[in-house]
Design a protein that fits this description.
This protein has a domain at 56-171 and 194-260: Rossmann fold, CATH 3.40.50. It is α/β, with parallel strands linked by helices and 263 residues long. 48% of the residues are buried. Helix 6 (143-153) links the parallel strand 6 (127-132) and strand 7. The strands form 2 sheets. Strands 10-11-7-6-3-4-5-12 form an 8-stranded mixed β-sheet, sandwiched between helices. A 4-stranded antiparallel β-sheet has the order 2-1-8-9. The radius of gyration is 17 Å and the shape is globular. The protein has 8 helices and 12 strands. This is Class I SAM-dependent methyltransferase.
Length: 263
């Protein structure tokens, strides 16, 4: 759950209003909710904190089996997917705007960077696979802008795997993170833009943007779409590798927008 709405691809963005949200950080540190996205009209979307903080489950593993080459997990949260890829010896990097998420990812043995997807990232234009799991296709509230940004991150012909909403929906709203169901409870931070998009709507938007469908499936009640980038090849592009990613991450001391690696 990252980024900002209506930014040109590659344009740096400030951290979202919820980046330092106490309900989110507290949920990740404890490993459980309750945690919700609350629209300004009071509607609540429950977030699956317990699943995010557990080890990768069979549905996750099926997704990871489809990943190709070096993997960038956008909105990695507490890091279960990055950690699993690292355990397999794969080159993988997770990005998240939450310090608590980055810290937990590193503790699990994954590489993680505290940054928005709309800010400069290591290996731009050279990632083989980008993941948008757990509803992260809604980052920034503008799926078109997010798809364009992901296309710029991927190598030509690269693979995007996105988890879509379990229902046919295509909506954008301003939301806040809350840790209780009380409609009058105070949420941390100001509202931020978010989107919910189902498989049909995502395929329609992706096709209009030049992406090629590489498959869709349902597993464990969750829905997924695989898309191929149609960006033309660049003679100067080189695939990201573990040495390059780690070197980039160790170049600076950890800060609000700098990477963190295991000690």
């Amino acid at each position: 759950m990252k980024g900002a709405a209506r930014l040109a691809p590659g344009t740096p963005s400030p951290a979202p209003a919820w980046a330092g949200s106490d309900p989110y950080a507290a949920a990740l540190r404890s490993g459980h909710g309750p945690l919700f996205l609350r629209r300004t009209d009071g509607w609540l979307l429950p977030l699956e904190v317990e699943r995010w903080c557990a080890r990768a489950d069979p549905v996750d593993l099926e997704v990871l089996d489809r990943c190709e080459g070096a993997v960038l997990d956008v909105g990695c949260g507490p890091g279960r997917l990055v950690a699993e890829l690292a355990a397999r010896g794969r080159t993988a990097l997770g990005i998240d705007v939450s310090e608590a998420a980055v810290t937990r990812t590193v503790r699990l043995g994954g590489q993680s960077l505290r940054r928005s997807v709309f800010e400069p990232l290591p290996g731009e234009g050279r990632w083989d696979t980008v993941l948008l799991m757990d509803g992260n296709v809604g980052i920034g509230g503008d799926p078109r802008a997010l798809l364009a940004r992901v296309a710029a991150l991927l190598a030509p012909g690269g693979l995007l795997i996105a988890e879509t909403a379990p229902v046919d929906v295509d909506e954008r709203a301003d939301v806040q993170l809350v840790g209780v169901t009380d409609a009058h409870a105070r949420a941390a931070g100001s509202p931020f833009p978010w989107a919910r998009i189902g498989t049909r709507a995502l395929l329609r938007r992706a096709g209009a943007a030049g992406w090629r469908s590489a498959g869709q499936w349902t597993s464990g009640g969750r829905r997924f779409v695989a898309l191929r980038s149609s960006r033309p090849a660049s003679s100067s592009a080189e695939p990201p590798n573990s040495t390059a990613v780690i070197s980039s991450q160790r170049a600076r001391k950890p800060s609000a927008d700098s990477p963190v690696t295991p000690a």
